[in-house]
Amino acid sequence: MTSLHDIYKKHISNLDNNEFIYKLKTAYYILTDKEKKLYEVGFKTGYELAQKKFSKKMEGARTIIGYQFAKPKKEKINEIIELVSKRYEVNKQELLSKNRTMDLVRTRNILHNLFSEVYQMSTLSIGRIFNQDHTTVCHSLDMKTKRERYWGDDQSIWQEYEDIKTTLSE
Prior knowledge:
The chain is mainly alpha-helical. 66% of the residues lie in helices and 4% in strands. The chain is built from nine helices and two strands. A hairpin with a 2-residue loop joins strand 1 and strand 2 (67-69). Helix 4 (74-87) packs across helix 6 and helix 6 (102-117) crosses helix 8.
């Protein structure tokens, strides 16, 4: 295994060999010895933090081009659907059906966003749960991003959504 000191030395040698970062190279060489030591400590600390952050994977997760997708266990998915359907007084079977009444669509929209944000599930996986096409899930996620329909600034859904996220994290 490569030590942090070796990684740091490689970083410094890359400064010497890379014309693209000439300004950084110049700035590094005008540092005093004390400032160089601080730079090294900062580099190592930042490197260790990045390793911890990027090495932490969710159970059953896979990474595609820097984005991590996961699929929680079926029991967890059912638990979340049960929790949200009870909160919004919606029948679970109707929620998973093709019905498109406003209360069902709004509840599905919340679930789509929960599964995407909290559990990093792919749109395809979310669509399979609800027997929907992934583009339907994408539209649901876009509504929140664009603050449309249920996700308007004047809607109470934002606080409700945060409450559910908090409940799930406990």
